Amino acid sequence: MLNNIRVVMINTFHPGNIGAAARALKNMGLSQLYLVDPKEFPHPEAESRAAGATDLLSEAIVVNTLEEAIQDCSLVIGTSARSRSFPWPMLDARSCADKAVAEAAQAPVAIVFGRERMGLHNEELMQCNFHLAIPADPDYPVLNVSAAIQIVCYELWQAQQQTQISTETTSAAEYPSSDDMKHFYGHLEQSLRDVNFIVPQHEGKVMTKLTRFFNRARPEKVELNMLRGVLSAVQRGVGK
Predict the structure, then answer these.
(1) pLDDT tens, 47-68?
(2) What is the set of domains in the chain, with CATH numbers?
(3) What confidence tens digit (pLDDT) does each residue in 129-176 have?
(4) What does 119-168 look like in DSSP terms, one character per residue?
(5) pTM to 2 decimals?
(6) Cα 110 to chain center, whole Å?
(7) At the N or C end, where does the chain have fewer CB atoms within 10 A?
């Protein structure tokens, strides 16, 4: 299951952090490293910090956007030390690991880490189902990104060791991918515009709040298909 969990690093500034992250993954039995638009990669310092994990660096998948990194994932968890004025459902490292390992038996899972200087942007966090924060001393709560990855990878390893799933009990629900949810949100927004629930003059935070709601509720694939059918019926009803 750990092979179905990917660590995603966004716009990493210091190549040494990429190398340290690769080492953290390999220490704890993970192998999937995705890099979104890194500032400098490949780089000798990344290889130096990776030590015996240079194979993970050579196999790292580099993409241009977060959407590309998570499009086939059914569960996406974004890490951030910053509290948000518009809060997302929260997890700590241990509950994150339990949830990720359980779901990785069915579909790819992504844990996303933001930039060293500013973390994840709000629009990136909106693409996640949950927000992960690692508690620390309030006087200095911000962890180095590679240190945060090491903590999360350790918890994933521990959760994997404690999880015993037999073939008779692996009937977990099948969830839609991030890409499926993206298309659903586009369909939902267009439908709400068609019935004038969203009007250009007063758009407000409708889609932000609905995105948070559905990310938290996490409809299964069958349920999402039903919702898409409802939206299509509404559009037909108003002649769209």
Answers:
(1) 999 999 999 999 999 999 999 9
(2) 2-162 (3.40.1280.10), 178-237 (1.10.8.590)
(3) 999 999 889 898 889 999 999 999 999 999 999 885 543 444 567 999
(4) B--HHHHTT-SEEE-----TTS-PPPHHHHHHHHHHHHHHHHHH----TT
(5) 0.84
(6) 4
(7) C
